[in-house]
Amino acid sequence: MRILITNDDGINAPGLRTLEAIAGEIAGPDGEIWTVAPAFEQSGVAHKISYTHPMLIAELGPRRVAAEGSPADCVLAALHDVMPERPDLVLSGVNRGNNAAENVLYSGTIGGAMEAALQGLPAIALSQFLGPANINEPDPFESAARWGVRVVRALLDADAWDTEDYRLFYNVNFPPVPAAKVRGMKAAAQGFRPDTVFGVEPHRSPSGRKFLWIKGGNQQVPTEPGTDAAVNLEGYVAITPMRADLTAHDALAGLEAALG
Fold first, then answer.
1. Domains in the chain: boundaries
2. Are 88 and 2 in contact (CB under 8 A)?
3. CATH for 2-193+221-259?
4. Is 247 left (phi over 0), alpha (psi -120 to 50) or beta?
5. pLDDT digit string (tens) for 185-243?
6. Residues forming the annotated binding site?
7. What is the mean predicted confidence (pLDDT) over 45-55?
8. String of b and e for 73-89 (b: at least 16 CB within 10 Å)?
9. Residue 176 and residue 144: Cα distance in Å, rounded?
10. pLDDT tens figures, 55-113
11. Known binding site for a divalent metal cation: residues?
């Protein structure tokens, strides 16, 4: 199996090393692992592409390339320049921090998987939820490392992709607990944390200039029962099927009636 991996934390991120190990076990001894990842951290860039300026790419080793761009850029670079053949699977992550609930909309990790799906490839985004029970562990990615292969194989064995125009991809969040306390896997819808929104925090520099830091909310708030963050906080791996189609299909009939 030929696997492409990328992330949004950057090519030197520890989560990418975890993903390399997961991909290596999935691909097997005769497989190929290609890494095309951002040269610098790209957290929060969502599905951004560098449409208005070129990106520099640098080969760091065999099948290992850094790109000065977003995760979606990295997927495009891999498919249309770096790799001689298309991959069988694209894995994005393992992100440091959850990409559940509203975080999905900002995530570069999700953006990489989404771009792969738009290019017609099976894709999975993987993220490690952090919390009091695992953030200070020697390896905060331990749950992802222990359960990652199991999750990816489960999706491959289920042949859980389709050929729709907006193709399915999968968002996987590992719970914020040590690996020994993971209770299993659950399919879960994307949730919503009503009081967890991004904002800004102003600061003054020594020269008196004003700067704004983007500030997130409390990540330990559960979403509705059975949805992604709630499932994670109960100790389960959350697996969410997604599409890039943002149409609110449930609102179409009402809108048509209102328009007369």
1. 2-193+221-259
2. yes
3. 3.40.1210.10
4. beta
5. 999 999 999 888 899 999 999 999 999 999 989 999 999 999 999 999 999 999 999 99
6. 8-9, 43, 95
7. 96
8. bbbbbbbeebbeeebbb
9. 10
10. 999 999 999 999 999 999 999 999 999 999 999 999 999 999 999 999 999 999 999 99
11. 8-9, 43, 95
Counting every residue written for the chain, the total comes to 260
